Amino acid sequence: MAKGKKLKPSDYPASPLSPSSPPPPSWLLDNLPLPRLFVFDLDYTLWPFYSDIHISPPVKPVQPDPSSSSSTTITTLSDRNGELFSLYPDAPLILRLLASLPGVKIAVASKSPVGDLCREVLKQLRLPPSLPPGWAEAVEEYAASDAAGGGTSGKNTVPKKVIDAFSSGGLEIYETSKIRHFEVIARRTGVAFTDMLFFDDERPNLEVETLGVTMRLIRDGLSWEEVARGIEQWRGNQGVV
Predict the structure, then answer these.
(1) Which of 30, 43, 52, 164 is an active site residue?
(2) Which of 96, 99, 101, 155 is nearest to 126 (CA)?
(3) 5: number of Cβ within 10 Å
(4) Which of 67, 85, 142, 159 is geometrically suited to a Cys-Cys bond with 164, CB 3.0 to 4.6 A?
(5) In the predicted model, what is the mean pLDDT of residues 194-212?
(6) Is 43 a catalytic residue?
(7) Residue 25 has what DSSP assignment?
């Protein structure tokens, strides 16, 4: 997908989980290990725009239609020029699910030069208030499985803002190499590089694999399909079949 132009919602790739009550992802139910740390780039990974080019601050929430079933959830922002901004369609629920898994941390590694603006966007956008029917039970089953260490339980704190999902892993948003980002993240979290899975849209950032990080190179933004492929790639690197 071409970059340099902010995408409209109609330009987003279709979600493979379009039903109103989709089943939990298969990787949550297969009793195989998951990465201890999921790390995400921002521009054209979590959201379909360049944060330092396309947004003219300040940004403010776009209030949802009161008749909508998600009327309390802010999923779109507007800037000074009235341009609209949001995450890729699958991203909010992906973050909501990962944030609920015991033993799993989430972080951001971005070279964006406008870190304060990125934090403001993440702070104003909201996550889904709950998981789809049946997903909470799947989280509890995962928590009790050998894959999660057994005998644990799902996280009790429910993140409301998108930025809250990253409280366990932190935000590294500044111009430097991604290797530097990961060195800082590793020191903060104590997670080994080999236990990290990184999603990014730029091929040069595959340099992080020299550290032992698994990087999933994506083209059209974060989606359930890309998460599944990334987990499969990480498991393959760990010798998990």
Answers:
(1) 43
(2) 96
(3) 13
(4) 159
(5) 98
(6) yes
(7) P
- Whether the CB-CB separation of 97 and 26 falls below 8 Å is answered with no
- Alpha-carbon distance of 6 to 2, in angstroms, equals 10
Is the predicted pLDDT of residue 230 greater than 50, yes or no? yes
Q: Which long-range contacts (CB under 8 A, 24 or more apart) does 130-137 make?
A: 130/158, 131/93, 131/96, 131/97, 131/100, 132/21, 132/22, 132/24, 132/93, 133/21, 134/21, 134/23, 134/24, 135/24, 135/97, 136/100
Helix axes 91-100, 135-144, angle to 10 degrees: 40
What are the tens digits of pLDDT across the range 47-71?
999 999 999 999 999 988 666 555 5
| pTM check: above 0.85 | yes
* Residue 199 parent element (H or E): strand 196-200
User: Of the residues 41, 90, 200, 201, which is catalytic?
Assistant: 41
Question: Scanning the structure block, which residue is given the tokens 């033993």?
Answer: 103
200 catalytically annotated: no
Would you say 193 and 128 are in contact if contact means Cβ atoms under 8 Å apart? no
DSSP annotation of 6 reads P
Which residues, 6 or more positions from 81, have their beta carbon under 8 angstroms from its beta carbon? 56
As a whole-number percent, the residues of the chain with pLDDT over 90 amount to 79
